[in-house]
Amino acid sequence: MGILKDKIPMLKNSLRMAHVWMDEYIEKYYSLHPTAKDFDYGDISERIALRKKLGCKSFKWFLENVYPEILNNSSSSGGSAMDGRKYERWDQRKRNYLNKWQIQLTNTSLCVESEEEPNRKGARLIMSPCASITRQIFYQTDKDELILAKLLCLEASNKIPRMGKCHDMRGNQEWKVNRKEDVVLYNIAAGLCLAATEDRPGAYVDMTLCSTPSMTSWHLIDQDITS
């Protein structure tokens, strides 16, 4: 088959994954790995049954909602796109913005701010004197996302809030906001609230149980959503 012996376990695992998850797009896999066409990847019936039991979405849904870049890359490289969907960059998708806020720690003059530029994925949040700058401006959407400067979504990542690529799947990017004064920002997936570690400039923002009102209570400063 022209496959090096030390590559066989890797090929078998990738084939099993492709046949469990790629649905009608499996031929795209074989177009990239033609020598794998007749390779024995073993029994995957249990993995397929588990996928059905968990109600996982289709690979087509993943391409359209999570990783549409792959469709664009296919077209721009001269190949055929996986479907006819018009490419739309993840940070340029149309969203329904409901509110535009600064997030101020109650009874202080400190606001939540990205530690790095608004387009930097993985950036942590810190407390900083409130100022009308892009690193402090969050937009709330109808999916309960909090999007910094209309670029990155606030997500609960291993109990540490960070800025990440918006995936439109709610979960760790879904924040419940129940009121405007003495607000708690509750993340559904983490089961924790956004919290300041200290009430001083430069202190990190963390996640904790919602029963610490002095550090988890926020005031949402309204901004003009049309500007």
UniProtKB/TrEMBL annotation:
<dbReference type="InterPro" id="IPR000772">
    <property type="entry name" value="Ricin_B_lectin"/>
</dbReference>
<dbReference type="GO" id="GO:0004653">
    <property type="term" value="F:polypeptide N-acetylgalactosaminyltransferase activity"/>
</dbReference>
<keyword id="KW-0430">Lectin</keyword>
<feature type="domain" description="Ricin B lectin">
    <location>
        <begin position="100"/>
        <end position="221"/>
    </location>
</feature>
<dbReference type="GO" id="GO:0008593">
    <property type="term" value="P:regulation of Notch signaling pathway"/>
</dbReference>
<dbReference type="GO" id="GO:0006493">
    <property type="term" value="P:protein O-linked glycosylation"/>
</dbReference>
<dbReference type="InterPro" id="IPR035992">
    <property type="entry name" value="Ricin_B-like_lectins"/>
</dbReference>
<dbReference type="Pfam" id="PF00652">
    <property type="entry name" value="Ricin_B_lectin"/>
</dbReference>
<dbReference type="GO" id="GO:0005794">
    <property type="term" value="C:Golgi apparatus"/>
</dbReference>
<dbReference type="GO" id="GO:0005112">
    <property type="term" value="F:Notch binding"/>
</dbReference>
<protein>
    <submittedName>
        <fullName>Polypeptide N-acetylgalactosaminyltransferase 35A</fullName>
    </submittedName>
</protein>
<keyword id="KW-0808">Transferase</keyword>
<keyword id="KW-1015">Disulfide bond</keyword>
<dbReference type="InterPro" id="IPR029044">
    <property type="entry name" value="Nucleotide-diphossugar_trans"/>
</dbReference>
<dbReference type="GO" id="GO:0030246">
    <property type="term" value="F:carbohydrate binding"/>
</dbReference>
